[in-house]
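During the reporting period the student researcher (J.K.) took over the structure-prediction task from the postdoctoral fellow and processed the backlog of single-chain submissions. One of the processed entries is reproduced below for the supervisory committee.
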Amino acid sequence: MKKFFMLMCLFVMMGTHSMAQKFALVDMEYILKNIPAYERASEQLNQVSKKWQAEVEALTEEAQTLYKNYQSEAVFLSAEQKTKKEEEIVAKEKEAAELKKKYFGPEGELFKKRESLMAPIQDEIYNAVKAISESKGYSLILDRASDTSIIFASPKVDISNEVLSKLGYSN
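J.K. obtained the following structure tokens:
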């Protein structure tokens, strides 16, 4: 009976050990910093963003100038002229707000531009990580850069350089 119990315990321990899952870490910030196409795309996004921000600020300044002029002239204007000037100011503010939404809103031009520039790079990284995962038998790969709950991770489980190599970038 004792031998049977020991044999069962041995099988349970072997079964548990064989079900252990392999995992690895990647550092997406590190990977992205080492991909020149990502740096170029980021710079392009920054330039477009600054250009669009300047357009929005120019409209906002126009609205502010109209308002300041209105305040200084209000005493000399008739009720009809005041109403016309107020409508003009509101229209300019609305135009600035709509332009800002068009460029920087949740589905705005900047979002679309980011998608078009970054999606191919992210897909390429994903496919490389997936290929490494399948070839090495990893069940789980975590991003060290985005998960703040990882307090310590052994460098042995970080496959970031392997991902870069798979993508054709050596470090």
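The committee noted the following: The radius of gyration is 29 Å.
J.K. will present the remaining backlog at the next meeting.
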